[in-house]
Design a protein that fits this description.
Blueprint lengths: L6 E5 L11 H8 L14 E5 L6 H26 L8 H25 L7 H6 L1 H13 L5 H19 L2 H4 L2 H25 L1
Antiparallel strand pairs: 1-2
Helix pairs in contact: 2-3, 2-6, 3-5, 3-6, 6-8
Length: 199
């Protein structure tokens, strides 16, 4: 996760060979006043992004979200793979809690990266992969259950936590797991298309 976007004033030095853009700058240079002769603290300043530390609340939400995705996703996998009856709605509850965990982790990531008060323009936000997965997870909660819908979130959670805990055995398989996510998404598109057309 990267730090939320904030602003901080820092000094910015320019080279003395820059052509002046105004009469004042030209006059200043004619008097021998340039960025070379002016003290750094008195030079022109610009706003840059401040790299803040990790927010402990967002970190805990991120960690709990991915852990929930793995725990409840595993329960849902067992029920769906073994065709177990949905007794007491355990499968349905676990399925949606798994997605809810992913939503929590993805929201914490976006909040940490941009800050909820500093969200980028919609075009930039939509281009973010985390945001795309977040929107899909919200949609999947309200639609029919499918093991293929939660596989990407499950594997992403596994990879994220493995990277965080430095589990080399899993990280060595990262390219393979990433390919599973890609093929699963392609299969899901085809499956949903066929289901829409013929059912």
């Amino acid at each position: 996760m990267s730090a939320p976007a904030t602003a901080n004033s820092t000094s910015s030095a320019t080279t003395p060979s820059v052509t002046p853009n105004s009469g004042n700058e030209a006059k200043a240079q004619s008097n021998g006043v340039t960025n070379v002769t002016v003290d750094p603290k008195d030079r022109k300043k610009k706003l840059i992004r401040k790299q803040g530390g990790t927010n402990p609340i967002k970190y805990q939400l991120w960690l709990a979200g991915h852990a929930s995705a793995i725990v409840f996703g595993s329960i849902s996998f067992v029920f769906q793979i073994l065709w177990l009856p949905n007794k007491f709605y355990i499968n349905s509850i676990a399925y949606r809690l798994s997605l809810l965990g992913s939503i929590t982790a993805l929201t914490a990531t976006l909040s940490h990266k941009f800050g909820l008060s500093y969200l980028p323009p919609h075009s930039t936000l939509v281009a973010q992969q985390n945001f795309q997965y977040l929107v899909l997870a919200v949609a999947w909660i309200f639609t029919f259950k499918s093991i293929f819908k939660i596989i990407p979130y499950y594997l992403i959670a596994v990879l994220q936590l493995s990277n965080h805990k430095k589990i080399d055995a899993v990280l060595k398989q990262a390219p393979f797991l990433a390919s599973i996510i890609a093929y699963d998404e392609l299969f899901l598109i085809g499956y949903l298309l066929i289901r829409t057309v013929f059912f």
